[in-house]
Amino acid sequence: MNTKVTIAGVEFKNPVMTGSGTFGSGMEYGEFVDLNRLGAVVTKGVANVPWEGNPTPRVAEVYGGMLNAIGLQNPGVDVLIERDLPFIKQYDTKIIVNVCGKTVEDYIEVVEKLADKEADMLEINVSCPNVKEGAIAFGQKADSLFAITSRIKKAAKQPIIMKLSPNVTDITEMAKAAEAAGSDAISLINTLTGMKIDINKRAFVLANKTGGLSGPAVKPVAVRMVYQCAQAVKIPIIGMGGIANAEDALEFIMAGATAVAVGAMNFVNPYTTVEVADGIEAFMKEKQVEDIQELIGCVK
């Protein structure tokens, strides 16, 4: 039985990876999860310099998921290179580094620093606020997305995955822009913008007012967007958004995702990733599916 998938020439032992920002760089989860069991570890987003993130409170539980306004707090790419990459490299899993920035030049600097490092792919977080566009995310305008993708593709030594924001009118327009600009793959969805109000305090629960909604509540939106993009582009898709078990993951795969990432559920059950990988295998055995390729995009 074959669970291997290939994205842009990189072979993964199975289609299950971690959602950026929900798994650190694997160190925090090492005592719970055998990282050798995962297709890939996707790191928390890293910038060219350390970011402090947003003021607290910046996480809130909501029905069916959570809101976060962490603001991409991270220690910067130099710490990732010195501390995190050597740690993940001990394991038989692929490494995908998530990259963030406030200007195109920020992204390019990180990508260039990683050129000769132990990263198999780079996932580019275009939901970061573009300071030159008045804090509109790079991924919310097709022309901005095309421009940043083109620049990063020219600078990157590794294949790139553009991580798409769902906070747009037409997700397929964004997918097509990323593909046209040379992206090797796309991942979706990033979080949906949400809000929570404390009625007793008559105040916003998050200091930032809004936050990114993730967890099971977003899954139907995510599956729909993955399906739409699978019909619109030829490049591989990594699907994510509310995956809690193998059944959820298989929905994404059947909708057209080559691989899947588990995010918010890592906070609820740190074993989720391995359980999803085992569950996909069990499903394939039960249904006598010899190769996972039979399932990718099987729903038309």
Q: Which sequence of SSEs, written as H and E, runs from N to C?
A: EEEEEEHEHEEEHEHEEEEEHEHEHH
Structural class by helix and strand composition: alpha/beta
The CATH superfamily appears as Aldolase class I
Strand order of the largest sheet: 3-18-17-12-11-8-7-4
Report helical residue fraction.
Answer: 25-40%
CATH topology: TIM Barrel
The mean pLDDT is 96
What can be said about the biggest beta sheet?
A: 8 strands, parallel
Question: Low-confidence runs (pLDDT<50, min 5 residues)?
Answer: none
Query: How many strand segments?
Result: 18
Structure annotation, total helices:
8
CATH class: Alpha Beta
Number of domains: 1
**Rg, alpha carbons:** 18 Å
Shape: globular
Mind sketching the topology for me?
Blueprint: E1 5-7, E2 10-12, E3 16-18, E4 40-42, E5 59-62, E6 65-68, H1 77-89, E7 94-99, H2 104-113, E8 121-125, E9 129-130, E10 136-137, H3 142-155, E11 160-163, H4 171-180, E12 185-188, E13 192-195, E14 197-198, E15 203-204, E16 210-214, H5 219-232, E17 237-240, H6 246-255, E18 259-262, H7 265-268, H8 272-286
Parallel strand pairs: 3-18, 4-7, 7-8, 8-11, 11-12, 12-17, 17-18
Antiparallel strand pairs: 1-2, 5-6, 6-16, 9-10, 13-16, 14-15
Helix pairs in contact: 2-3, 3-4, 4-5, 5-6, 6-8
